[in-house]
Amino acid sequence: MYYLLVTSIFMTNIILIEPVFSDENFNDQLIRLEDEVKSLKTENNQLQKKLDTIEKNKEKNLKVYVDKLFEKYMDELRKINPSPHNLWDNADFRVRGAINKHGLPSGWMIHGDRSSIETEILHCYTKGFVGEYREAKSDNALEKNQFDIASEKKPVWYGKYNCGPRISRWGWYGQKFNILKLKITGKGYAGIIQHSKTKLFTDSNSKYHVKVYVRILEGSKFGISQDVSFDDIIVTKKQCDSSPQKWCLVEGSFTGSNSSANHIGFGRPYGKQEELEVLIALPYLYIENALWMDSKKSQSCPNQNQ
Fold first, then answer.
1. Which residues neighbour 2 within 8 Å (Cβ) at sequence distance 6 or greater?
2. Could you give the count of Cα atoms lying within 13 Å of 302 in the half-sphere of its Cβ?
3. What is the CATH number assigned to the segment(s) 109-124+176-292?
4. Closest Cα partner for 94 from 207, 204, 178, 217?
5. Dihedral, CA of residue 233, residue 237, residue 240 and residue 245, to nearest 10
6. pLDDT tens digits, residue range 63-107?
7. Are strands 221-226 and 207-218 parallel, antiparallel or unpaired?
8. Rounded-to-integer distance, Cα 247 and Cα 216, Å
9. Total-model pTM
10. Domain ranges of the chain
């Protein structure tokens, strides 16, 4: 209860004024306000935690995105900029003056029972792999549908200045190459290989990428591998027979090995016993994931001369 003293020149009055809030109401209001403040603080803390989590997730997601983007870029870089180029020596099967003791061009060797492996070097006109490069068909040339009997002396004429669907303008620059005929009889996996020099450049995480034209004459499967099982990449006769002139472009990747074995080649896959007779042209091998191109696995040393 409050009192108000009102004074005038005539009289003095005392007026009783009822307070707006009683002591009890004031305390209730104060407690309610304190609760609301606490609630707001709690909500604010929760909101701040959510904002912190969002920021962390943004940073994490951004890092993941950047890592994926970088890895994609590196994958493309490895494909367009392989190093070193063609690891298979003498991939055009040039004789270079003499056949080695295995009956193969230099750089290649036989794996398996030598008595069960026969090889022969053939001209690139064989089986219509490429045709003659002429404006008009020569007298000894064959029609397109006669590719099965094509040879050095009887090339296919695919048309005016057209060497065929694989290397259409090969004849324009005339770089010579041969085709290898590989015949495997007997039992067990066998083929031809090279000692790889790539141990200097790779580790177990590196990938080899290979491209090679193949035509299977006899047998069902032909394989390529690091080591000597010839089963990392496999192509079937059915696949070849459905390709133009039955020449199949085999392409794929396989992981390298950090073991002591460093052979890379092709032949009859592991587990196959049937006779295999196959024509092979222009094998190309490179490192898709070279050791020095993998930033996550190799760290360069700082230059001490700076």
1. 16, 17, 19
2. 2
3. 2.60.120
4. 178
5. 150
6. 888 878 877 776 676 566 555 578 887 888 886 555 555 567 777
7. unpaired
8. 8
9. 0.67
10. 109-124+176-292
